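Have a think about this chain, tokens included, and walk me through the fold.
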Amino acid sequence: MNKPVELPVTQALPLSRITVLDLTLARAGPTCVRHLADWGATVIRIEPVETIGEDLAGKRGGFDFQNLHRNKKMVQLNLKSPEGHAAFMKLVEKADVIIENMRAEVKHRLKISYEEVQKINPRIVYGSISGFGQSGPYGKRAGVDQIVQGMGGLMSITGLPGQGPVRVGIAIADLTAGNLLAFAVMTALFERETTGVGRWVHTSLLEAQVFMLDFQASRYLMKGEVAGQAGNDHPTGVPTGVFPASDGLFNIAAASARVFLRCCDALGKPEWKDREDWNTQAKRSKARTEINGAIAEITKHKPTQHWVDLFEANGVPCGPINTIDKVFADPQVQHLGISTPVKSDSLGDINLVASPINMTGVSKKIRTATAEAGAHTEEVLGAVGYTQEQLQQMRANGVI
């Protein structure tokens, strides 16, 4: 058998030959671009010359903006002016990817749609995120994460039974759409290796949210079952959920036949394995309240760590329910290096959330903190042929 080839440790990141023009706003688009930037793409973020009000992602020096826009070059450019539009098209000539998440019609109004940039550069991969899709009855509507959590069904299955709709504690529609678009962009870039031609790839918050319903969606499509709220219990797998310890609450996941048997032994209740009314998952699902109550009567007498150690030793998935400070104090989280230091010119030493992707022989450290607005305008435009005199005139005219 041939041994696998081991690639050497390299300083060049996998996407270092890719140039991305970033026209994104808020969170969904920046989430996509962050993947590309973290893995080495030269990302040129195009921002308006004057920003009215507060950026939707937060103030520039705030934790959110800093975490979304690291590893980028910052350019200020007025795309509404003829000179600014011309400068953008010069950048398009050299670019590989454009990412935008404006309302669907805005890119056409600015004359920077896929159809228009493809004429300049047929190799361009153009990625778009909208709220509800690029066409259709909702195509012109703006998309907001919480609105889509509601329209996409997620809020109806989140929370305790009878509680009423509950939003998820993160912007999951935004984040999922961004993650999916990054995958779509890489798929199109891979195809371009063969065809030499780019594509327009797009998704929406609504599509991403419905996709993330996953088995709850197929449960309806195939069986006609409309899921409701199940709280901390797994919708179909029993016992899986939150149980009391003497010092708080913790999770157990013991739904499969084999793991349920191990759970019985760990709890000192081997006789549960022989109960006729608990010996299949379907039966356990009907007896959810009884089973969960019986387990809770045992677990509530000892602390969480006792149960984590005991269940782990018996091959039963189990874990504490951490607040975010405890997440980053966890030894496994620290080992994985998810909190990553970076030096900011304006903020000093800060920590941001690292890419969750790992690749052998490649460092995933954050290379640069989020730069100030327009920090790289002259550098970037100079690289596509603008002279210092032209740049000075453009600045005087409010183009940059």
